[in-house]
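Lecture 7 notes: from sequence to structure.

We start with a single chain of 347 residues. Read the sequence below before looking at the structure.
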Amino acid sequence: MHKKWLLTASILFATAYADNALNVPPPTHPSVEEEPLVPPEVIEAEIVDAQKEFDEAKKMFNPWYTGPLLTPSAHVAPYHTLSVQPYIYYINNYAKFNKHGHSHHIPNFEVVQIALAPAQVGITHWMDIAVVAQGLWQHQKGEGYMNWGDTSVSIGFGLVKETPYNPAFKIVFKEVFPTGKYQNFSTHKAAVEGTGAGSYQTTFSANVSKVVWWLTEHPMGLRLSLNYTLPSHVHVNGFNSYGGGPGTHGTVKPGSSIAVDFGYEYSFTQRWVAALDIAYTYNWKTRFSGTTTATVGGPFNDQLSLAPALEYNPTPNLGFLTGLWFSVWGRNSFNFLSEIISVTYTF
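Now the structure, written as tokens:
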């Protein structure tokens, strides 16, 4: 009897379980809700924001640059273009810094420097060549002299092109050829006849340029140039650019030098730009070996200078540049003030 009851209960339980399993509802999928309509006020707000962004964009402009005065650009001259930039420097060396950085007055040593054939040519999309030939007029204590200066040829290689957030990067190799007068000066004009160094000078430069757009409505141009110059030895006779006098004969070993230039440009408008250069140079000691009765060569010298300027660019291809360049500190170097005028045109 007991066994029959257990069998009956098992059958009833299995039947109930099967009924429940068969009555399980099928799985359901979440329904896709329809996207609600955007309220008109939201659309109107988006239109207002877009108009504001457009108005801000209209205030921005592509700046035209001629300067600054000293710091070179990291951009390669466009392919198959020719840029010329004659300039005039008037320099008055009115004092000298001693080795402790104290300035002492000297008779004005005036220099007018005219670049007669400064030209930059785009050879490829990543390489350009620049040539600078110049003439000099120098005057001190009533004596004047005019002659050619040294001539330079530069080859630049653009390694990185500028993008909205990346700067341009360029390396430059420059060779200076001793086309200026550097020795055998006359006795009464020895102080002003030196228009050249007499040395082949090789300069390695690394230049960086960037136009900053996103900090202000007025674009700003930034430049940095790092330079190292290695000069060759010079054989000299008599009065020369390094000193000496009658009977001087020997070899001058000019010291190598470094130069660091930082340039800043602020665009008031597309055509009007303010610029400033900060320049530092350091020259190692110049040595002499040979026969002489006067000092030849000299100690190290360095100098810190500033060059504020104003640019006017009536078209993308034509620009005018003028400003001052003056020393603010130095050791064993001239204390000077210079006025500069330049014009550039790209064909």
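Residues 50-346 form a domain with the Porin fold (CATH 2.40.160.40). Keep this in mind for problem set 3.
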